[in-house]
Amino acid sequence: MTDTTIETVDTPAMPLRYDGKGLQFAGIVALNVLLQVLTLGIFRFWARVRERRYIWSHVGLGEDRLEYTGTGGELFKGFLIALVVLIPYFLAVFGLQFLVGQNPLGLAIFNMFYIPSLLFLIYLAGYRARRYRLSRTLWRGIRGTLGGSPTRYAAAAVGYFALSVLSLGLAAPYMRVELARREIGNTWFGDKPFTFDGKAGDLFRAWLVPWLPIVLTAAVIGWMQWTIRDLNPQDFDPSDAAQADRSRAIGEIMPLIAGLMLLGYLLTALAFAWYRVREFRYFAAHTGFEGMRFASTLGVGRVLWIYVSFLLALIPTITVVTLTVFAAVLWAKDFPMDLDMLPYAMEAAKDWFPIAVTVTMIFAIGVMSRVLVFHRMARAVVSTLAIAGAENFATVAQSLDRAPTYGEGLADAFDLGDF
User: Fold this and answer.
1) pLDDT tens-place string over residues 225-279
2) Choosing a second label site near 120 at 20 to 30 A (CA), which of 74, 89, 302, 392?
3) Distance separating alpha carbons of residues 110 and 204, to the nearest angstrom
4) The dihedral sign for the CA sequence 18, 23, 26, 27
5) Where do runs of H (alpha helix) occur along 148-190?
6) How confident is the model over 373-409, as pLDDT tens digits?
7) Which helix (H) or strand (E) holds 143?
8) Integer Cα distance of 259 and 392 in angstroms
9) CB of 150 closer than 8 Å to CB of 127
10) Backbone angles phi, psi at 34, to 5 degrees
């Protein structure tokens, strides 16, 4: 397997740095979430811009920092344009689904067209979103660009996806590398292109690490479901002793099913996280720009801890939110501050207590996910990246390509992320 470290360059690496503060970003996110709730979600476009400007402005390379110049109005305009495409599309989908009904052959034919078309739109949205973000990202006053055809990229991605499905997932590294080649190879900083020379074969053995638990877990689940189906026919008769024995067998086998599924999901998640980190480091090592190469020291332990700590933080958060709303209910209804009064307070506020808890949880989890996951992941990715090679940015001039005039549109509709 190809080593992802850079050993051929004698020039010291120039690291990227991130110096954003969690509490500062939390303040921005908290206000954003509050304004989104008050505006019924409309402020989300301006909220995304505020967060990006903070993240971008705290990413440094050399003595200069990134700059994000996108606007909430551009994102909102792009979203409205996307609706013009998506509303007729989904109306047609629902109409065809209604006409097909429960006919097995009709459903099969419907899915043969629906799934590829939906994937096409998702990949198209992702590519156009990257193009917009690059066009609004500046360093030393020079912006990035993403060339190539979004439609050809999306069509190729659907083809690679089909190949991956037909190969039972074994072709996934080929799909990932070829899509990265199209993305990175069409990425420019100013008037200079990036290069990518990765090969799928270098990642194949690494991909087997998550692929094996995925396949084994799916096989075990399928076998268990087939066994249950055999033990519990649709014409089950409780008075039949043989069928009663089968029913007891189902009860005995269910803990085993649950345990194997949980173990399979856990192993798959760990293995997949390990692979994605390794893949990211490989992609970085095989990306070049004007004779310079990238390198990453991102570790899987750091990535896993970001998600594990977020999940652990949810437990006290849910408890605190529930107790806070409960205290507010007691105060509003003039009940004594006593847990014994909970049933009476719940009955008195049964119409709006669930709504209050839900809204408060959306606010709390929205802030936590952006601060504990998005912000920390940005720090982890940026702070472990470096550029090795002789700095050659002085020859870069501003690109003359016309930048997009509106935002991410479809990507925002599909919520495809923003970093």
Assistant:
1) 676 665 555 555 556 566 566 666 666 667 777 777 788 888 889 999 999 999 9
2) 74
3) 33
4) negative
5) 150-166, 172-185
6) 999 999 999 999 998 875 666 666 666 566 565 555 5
7) strand 142-146
8) 55
9) yes
10) -60, -45
